[in-house]
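Why predict the complex rather than its parts? Because the way molecules touch one another can change local conformation, and only a joint prediction can capture that. The input here totals 586 residues.
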Amino acid sequence: MKEEISQLLEQALKGLVEEGVLPEETRGTAIQVERARDRKHGDFAANLAMMLAKPARRNPRELAAAIVEALPASDLVRKVEIAGPGFINFFLSPQAWHAVVEEVFERGTRFGHSDIGRDEKIHLEFVSANPTGPLHVGHGRGAAYGSTVGNLLEAIGHPVHREYYVNDAGRQMDILATSVWLRYLELGGAELRFPSNGYRGDYIIDIARQLREEHGEAFQQPVESVFHGLPEDAPDGDKEAHIDGLIGRARHLLGEEAFQTVFLTALEDILADIREDLSAFGTEFDEWFSERSLTSGGMVDHALEELEKSGDVYEQDGAKWFAAEKYGDEKDRVVVRDNGQATYFASDIAYHLNKRERGHDRLIDILGADHHGYIARLKAGLEGMGQPGDSLEVRLVQFAHLYRGKEKLQMSTRSGSFVTLRELREEVGRDAARFFYVMRSNEQHLDFDLELAKSQSSDNPVYYVQYAHARICSVFQQAEDKGFQYSRDTGLANLDQLDEDHEDQLMVTLSRFPEVVEAAARNRAPHQLTQYLRDLANDLHTYYNAHTFLVLEEEIRNARLCLVEATRQVLANGLALIGVSAPESM
RNA sequence: GCGCCCGUAGCUCAGCUGGAUAGAGCGUCGGCCUCCGAAGCCGAAGGUCGCAGGUUCGAAUCCUGCCGGGCGCACCA
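Output of the joint prediction:
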């Protein structure tokens, strides 16, 4: 609809250039059409005349008059006015709004979708939490935000590949395996002081128990041999040295094969739990990409080769460095340590190179806000490997702070005293959780009040929107109970009988949906969609309270039902995009 | 110290890539159910858009400086 207005203006512009009224260089001026905020200003407004005033050396109002004069006729437009400093205001005809209702039915669940993004393949990485324990509420925000952005991008036609990067390599994983093994020893009757830096959650004990069921006493070792001669743990000693010593001891006493068994059991258990959790949260991935596969598949070496080609890799102090500073990073980065091991930075850029080599035009990473330091170095790395730095787009998700009423809840994976995503889901429900997570801009800190999200009444916005949907369903149920036969065709044929302000308003809001979806997708801003859904629900509730739908006159009744049926469709489409259900009754 | 994010109504936040008189929810106050679901609707009060400059027809929005809050600055993962 916006598009159509824009085209009319384009033709007018073209005409004026050809007539010589406007200089040649204004031909390519980008036409901006926006929704008028106040309906007194019509339905759409264009600032074209103001933008052209300078190059054309004419005053904007005069120019606006010339543009209006040059506009081709259209039956969508009822009236055009010039207002203020030179705005061109368009008033649309009723037929224009009726066409929207028809379009909703024609497109059905795909109303609001488009294909404008079809030429850009997008790789979307999100959540990617270390598989060292259950997901907590911070990951939940990334999951809700990421999956909604994915839905929005798909809705505007982008091919989207959703991926979870599994950090299944490195020291944290070794600490995990060691923690499991220590719990295993405890289950075997050993008494030991659990390392302060180990993973303490109950899930560790569950995994240890499973290990015992599957492997019996195979991994049992005397406690003395495990702890003997290790550096002291905190508070008197160095907890890092202590845990590293324990890892070494575990590897040594168990042997590499048995250690791997413990390691893999822990990894697979936790990963399975995460998959199940995310799936139940309505978040699906196309691929779970293993960090270890980067090394084993030679991708890290390949990336290092590509990087070498830049000529910006040098050796110093026995390590290989990448001159990242030349590419806008704040300092140079080590890629291979003096012990010959590739750094985390090396595997990170190898991963991103791999994403590019898989054919994705744009890489979107959704990261926790504490990772913002990675952006510059990742872009630098990509450029060093001959890839465009701006093919990577990082979206940060700020922290979510959980409150139970006034009480702020503490979170820490290590201590085991966190609130998990699963607990949150069980407590407030998937719909409320998802809606709350994306309701605010991702760049904004989120105060998530459990009591509020749980409250089945009043101030919970997700219920407000869902209620609008349920209410419409209920109206159709009532119609049936009263013996009114609903005919959509009769309704469509009589839309011109709908002349109430509320009906007008509702149709206008329905027509905004495709624009909202596009803007929310382009801006990676799901909260713009939740905002819209509240507007739409409000229009429906207002209309409902002001007018009875199930009136005796058949034409008006069917026309009204037709309008609310379209509304129901749009509510459902919008809720589907954020992964929230559209209930028929509540 | 350097870098990134955020300062908008009492509270929580929008403000659509610079537009017309800055909006919504909650909270407060006052109304609306013999009538399709009151999980709803209508109305009122509430603002120096952190502060100061700058850019232009026009700034909450863009630029600079300052103030305040959060986060990050590893041969850790």
